[in-house]
Amino acid sequence: MHLSLPRLSAESVHSAHGRGSVQALALQEITKCFGPVQALRGVSLTVGDGEALAVFGPNGAGKTTLLKIAATLMRPTSGTFRILGADPSHQAPQLRRLIGLVSHQSYLYAGLTGFENLLFTARMYGVPDARARAHALLETVGLSHRGGDLVRTYSRGMTQRLSIARALVHDPRILLLDEPFTGLDRQAAMAFRDLLLAMRGTRAIILTTHSIEQGVAVSDRVAILVDGAVAYEAENGARDVGTVERVYAQCVGVPA
Fold it and tell me: Which domain holds residue 236?
């Protein structure tokens, strides 16, 4: 996996949205209920343009639900939500073009090659020179040698790397990553961490992970989600991994 991310030109799909002081994502008192089950309970979080937020929490804490709402794939039961100051309930299709998502579902077509998957996504977003973009991203995630193979032949780690490339194909303004280190071997995980570090300041990022070490390394702020609510939130600058692990243990009741 290479470390440089090829950028699109100023005429890319999100060029109409200039950078400024507006929050990239702003969630206020968000709740989400599935029947009698309350998955999110009054979650309020903001992510500035160019800022990276790492969200930790045990299984079932609501992290995936939070990212699905942020990606406009799910509507909250109550609360307010803005993307770059706009209301996604009225502009979801347009705003979705500014978002890149890596989730537990790969959104890849097993019957297409790795290259064809990226080419399809690039053309769907109207990316200029889609073929060159697909080739460049295969190089970025270290899959150039397997770009011509069907995705159904990929290992779990290779599929995850292609999912990361797919999320980046349109050079999104906002990047949402749900457990992106899952399935990556140590070398690929370290390379992806370096890629995230290289992207810091260039786009808003929300990252959920069970790895406090990886999350702290790539983020500006951290939050801990427990039972659907924010139990802790802090700036990341002066905090080491050990401190966050101790706070996590206090919030969750078990070691991270």
Answer: 22-98+173-255
Q: Specify whether the CB–CB gap between 183 and 160 falls below 8 A.
A: yes
Co-location of 150 and 193 in the same domain: no
User: pTM to 2 decimals?
Assistant: 0.88
Domain-ending residue, one of 128, 145, 171:
171
146-174: string of b/e by CB count within 10 Å (b at 16+)?
A: bbeeebeebeeebbbbbbbbbbbbbbbbb
Question: Are 80 and 177 in a shared domain?
Answer: yes
Q: Three-state SS for 173?
A: coil
Whether residue 207 lies inside any domain: the answer is yes
- At 108-162, the pLDDT tens digits run 999 999 999 999 999 999 999 999 999 999 999 999 999 999 999 999 999 999 9
Which residue from 67, 43, 77 is spatially nearest to 225, judged by alpha carbons?
A: 43
Segment 62-68 mean pLDDT? 97
Going across the sheet that includes 37-48, the strands are: 37-48, 23-34, 78-83
Q: State the total domains in the chain.
A: 2
- Indicate left, alpha or beta for 135 from its phi (over 0: left) and psi (-120 to 50: alpha): alpha
Q: Which residues contact 199 (CB under 8 A, 6 or more apart)?
A: 5, 175, 205
Residues 6 or more apart whose CB falls under 8 angstroms from that of 122 comprise: 130, 131, 133, 134, 169, 170
Residues 56 and 162 in one domain: no
Assess whether 40 and 135 both reside in one domain.
no
